[in-house]
Automatic annotation (TrEMBL):
GO terms for molecular function: pentosyltransferase activity. The chain crosses the membrane at residues 17-35. Residues 261-352 form the Glycosyltransferase 61 catalytic domain. It comes from Carex littledalei. Pathway: Glycan metabolism. This is Glycosyltransferase 61 catalytic domain-containing protein. It is a single-pass type II membrane protein. Its main location: Golgi. The lineage of its organism: Eukaryota, Viridiplantae, Streptophyta, Embryophyta, Tracheophyta. Keywords: Glycoprotein, Glycosyltransferase, Membrane, Transferase, Transmembrane, Transmembrane helix. It holds the Pfam family Glyco_transf_61. One of its GO terms (cellular component) is Golgi membrane.
Length: 454
C-alpha cells in the first residue's frame, strides 16, 4: 500500500536532513561568534570592558543639558500649551486640577529639576535642566525637601494676579493631604527670578500651606541648584474645574477665619443683612465719599434688619479684613486690590463694583477680573457702575497713555441709580438668607465642620 510505504520511508529520511541542517547551523554559529569576538577586540572596546561605575556616572553628569528658562521661540504665545517657561516639557493633567510638572516622577524619568536662575531682568539668561540624583551637574547644590516653583505672566505683588498664581499650590497641598509644606518657594515672572510677594498674599499662603521661604539663591554658591522634589505650576489656576476652585477657596476662607479666631457660629446665628462699603483712599476713591456713604446708609436703614458699615481699606490688618468680610453679606467697593477680600465672605454673598471714567472702554478683559474671582469663590457679582462723567480720551492720545491717565481717577456717583441698585441687592440678600435659614432649620442644626482637606 502506498500510504504504508510512505509512512515507513519518512522516519528514515528526516534524521539525515536534520543532521545536515544542524551541522550547517553550528558551523554558522561558530563562524559568527568568532567574527563577534574579533569585532569586540578590535572595534568595540567599550562593550568588552564594561565601564566602571564612575565612568557611566560621569557620562550622565556631562550629558546634563541646560536650556533657557524662557524660550523666546514662543514669545507670540507665552501662556498657551507648554508655555515659554520650561518649554521642553509637557504638563501633567489630573482631573479637575491645574496642569503641573513634578520632579522626580515617571514623566521626568525620575530625574530632578535643576536651575541656574539668578537673573532678575532676563528670563532667557536663566536656565533649567534635568538630572538623575547620582549624576547631578558639576558644582550643583542639592536642596532637600519639597520646592514649589511658580511662573506667572503677571506678578506676585498684585493681589488678584498673585492669588491666581497661588491657588493651584493650595490645591496641590490639599491633594497631598495638607501635610508637608514646601521647604521653599521659587518665584518667576517670564522666567525672571522674583523674591517678593504681597504681604496679604503671603498671609494667605502661610495660613493655608505653611511658613513661606522665598528662595533668593543668595546664600548658595554659584552653580546650579537641584531640588530633591519640585512641583511647577506655570498656568495659574489653568485647567482647574469650577468645583475644584470652590473647594480651594472654601479652604482658604475657612483657615483664614480659624487663624483670625472668627466666631462663625455667632455670625451665622445673626439673621440681619450686613452691607459693607469698603473705601479706598487716593486712587479710585469716591470724589464725594460723604455723599456715597449717605446713599447706602439710607438705603439700608429703609430695610428691617439691615446693618451698614463703611470702612477704610488702607489701615486694616489681614485679620481685620478677614473679620470684617466674614460678617459682610453685601460688599460695595471700587475696582481694586481691596476687592480680593471678597473671598472671606460666606459663599453666595454679593459684590457691587465701581469704576472710574474710561474703564469700560479701555481696560479690556482686565475689567472682568473680579467678576471671575466672584465666580471662582462662589460669590454673586451683582454688576458694576461706571462713572461716565468727565472728559474722555481724544484721538490724539495713545490708548495705553489714555488708560493710564484715567485708571486711577476718583469716582463720582449717581444717587438715584445707587439707591435703586442697593435696594435690589439688599432685598435679594434678605430673601436668600431667609431661604437659607429655613433650609438650615429643616435639616436640623448643621455643625460647622473643620476646614476640609481633599
Ligand atoms: C556607583 O556610584 C554610586 C554613586 O556615585 C556609589 O554610591 C556606588 O557606591 C558606586 N558603586 C560601585 C560599585 O562603585
Ligand atoms: C508634548 O506634546 C506635544 C503635543 O502633544 C508632542 O508633540 C510632544 O512630543 C510632547 N513632548 C514631550 C517632551 O513629551
Ligand atoms: C471632577 O469634577 C466632577 C464634577 O465636575 C466630579 O464629578 C468628579 O468627581 C471630580 N473628579 C475628581 C477626581 O475630583
Ligand atoms: C458731597 O455731597 C453732599 C451731599 O450730596 C453735598 O452736600 C456736598 O456739597 C458734596 N461735597 C462736595 C465737595 O461736592
Ligand atoms: C483706621 O483708621 C480709622 C480712621 O482713620 C481709625 O478709626 C481706625 O482705628 C484705624 N484702624 C486701624 C486698625 O488702624
Ligand atoms: C448658593 O445659592 C444657590 C442658589 O440659591 C444654592 O443652590 C447653593 O446651595 C448656595 N450655596 C451655598 C454654599 O450656600
Ligand atoms: C487731546 O488730549 C491731549 C492730551 O490730553 C490734549 O493735549 C489735547 O488738547 C486734546 N485735544 C482735544 C481736541 O481735546
Ligand atoms: C427663595 O426661595 C424661593 C422658593 O423656593 C425661590 O423662588 C427664590 O428664588 C429664593 N430666593 C433666593 C434669593 O434665593
Amino acid at each position: 500500500m502506498t500510504i504504508a510505504q510512505e509512512n515507513l520511508v519518512k522516519p528514515q529520511k528526516t534524521p539525515k536532513i536534520l543532521v545536515i541542517i544542524s551541522g550547517f547551523i553550528i558551523f554558522l554559529l561558530v563562524f559568527w561568534f568568532q567574527g563577534l569576538q574579533s569585532l569586540r577586540q578590535f572595534s568595540w572596546p567599550l562593550a568588552s570592558n564594561p565601564p566602571a561605575n564612575q565612568t557611566l556616572t560621569a557620562m550622565l553628569r556631562d550629558a546634563v543639558t541646560f536650556l533657557p528658562l524662557k524660550d523666546l521661540r514662543y514669545s507670540d504665545k507665552p501662556t498657551t500649551g507648554h508655555t515659554w517657561f520650561m518649554s521642553s516639557v509637557n504638563d501633567t493633567f489630573d482631573p479637575n486640577d491645574s496642569e503641573y510638572l513634578h520632579f522626580p516622577s515617571y514623566s521626568s524619568h525620575n530625574r530632578l529639576l535643576c536651575l541656574l536662575s539668578r537673573h532678575r531682568y532676563d528670563g532667557a539668561a536663566n536656565s533649567y535642566a534635568f538630572a538623575w540624583p547620582n549624576a547631578l551637574p558639576h558644582g550643583a547644590t542639592l536642596l532637600p525637601g519639597l520646592t514649589y516653583v511658580s511662573d506667572t505672566y503677571y506678578d506676585y505683588t498684585n493681589l488678584w494676579h498673585g492669588l491666581s498664581a497661588l491657588v493651584p499650590f493650595v490645591g496641590w497641598h490639599m491633594r497631598k493631604g495638607c501635610a508637608v509644606p514646601p521647604a521653599r518657594w521659587v518665584l518667576f515672572h517670564w522666567g525672571e527670578l522674583r523674591t517678593e510677594m504681597a504681604t496679604w498674599l503671603r498671609s494667605i499662603a502661610e495660613v493655608t500651606i505653611g511658613k513661606v521661604n522665598i528662595e533668593t539663591f543668595e546664600t548658595i554658591d554659584v552653580g546650579p541648584v537641584c531640588f530633591e522634589e519640585a512641583v511647577v505650576f506655570r498656568h495659574n489656576q489653568g485647567a482647574m474645574a469650577k468645583i475644584r476652585l470652590r473647594e480651594v477657596f472654601d479652604r482658604i476662607r475657612c483657615l483664614a477665619r480659624e487663624f483670625c479666631n472668627v466666631d462663625m457660629e455667632k455670625i451665622k446665628a445673626n439673621e440681619e443683612v450686613r452691607m459693607t462699603l469698603l473705601l479706598r483712599t487716593g486712587t479710585r476713591s469716591f470724589r464725594n465719599e460723604t455723599a456715597v456713604v449717605r446713599i447706602f446708609e439710607e438705603e439700608c436703614a429703609k430695610m428691617e434688619n439691615c446693618r451698614f458699615l463703611a470702612a477704610k481699606s488702607n489701615n486694616l490688618t489681614f485679620c481685620d479684613q478677614v473679620r470684617l468680610l466674614s460678617k459682610t453679606d453685601v460688599l460695595a467697593t471700587a475696582h481694586g486690590a481691596q476687592m480680593t477680600n471678597m473671598i472671606f465672605m460666606e459663599r453666595n454673598s454679593s459684590v457691587m463694583e465701581f469704576y472710574p471714567v474710561g474703564w469700560k472702554e479701555m481696560a479690556g478683559p482686565g475689567q472682568y477680573v473680579f467678576r471671575w474671582l466672584a465666580n471662582w469663590a462662589g460669590m454673586r457679582h451683582q454688576g458694576s457702575w461706571s462713572d461716565d462723567g468727565g472728559p474722555a480720551c481724544n484721538g490724539t492720545t495713545a490708548r495705553l497713555e489714555c488708560f493710564n491717565s484715567f485708571k486711577d481717577r476718583q469716582i463720582g456717583h449717581d444717587a438715584v441709580y445707587f439707591s435703586q441698585w442697593a435696594s435690589k441687592v439688599l432685598q435679594e440678600m434678605k430673601e436668600y438668607k431667609r431661604n437659607a435659614s429655613l433650609a438650615l432649620h429643616s435639616v436640623s442644626a448643621q455643625a460647622i465642620s473643620r476646614c476640609k482637606c481633599y
